[in-house]
Amino acid sequence: MPTQRETELYFEARNRALERVVSGKDFLSDVERGIAHGIRAADILEIGDAPLAPETNYGFAFVCGVLAKLEAVKGKSYEASWMKRGDESIFANIQRKYDILDARFHGNNVGESRVTNLADLAVYCVKEICRQAQLNPDEVKSWLEEVRKLS
User: Where are the domains of the chain?
Assistant: First the structure.
């Protein structure tokens, strides 16, 4: 059962979602600014003034910027080991991160933080989308068409 604070945050996010800009110059500006700030924040360890709220273009883009920096640094040192065994590797990594998160959400607070594991899981998912663009370009084109039809 959600706490009172979680319920309040949900209603705030729902209201932002209803007002969210999904195309045009304002959308592009929010996303560009968020990604740039996220990349810089990963270097200077400062979030800045803009709120990182769910259901905002800026918040989502900011996290994507931080993830881009995270992936660049870890990806370089890991030398693409996540691809070494094909599907077996990526899904093992995704399952491992999911299992760690499941344990943390159920009270086991040993190891890396929730945010660290969520970030790693997100990076693996994005990496797999990029790998699928190479393996199954028609499927990714079809996905892009689905996204285009949404707006």
Answer: 1-77, 80-151
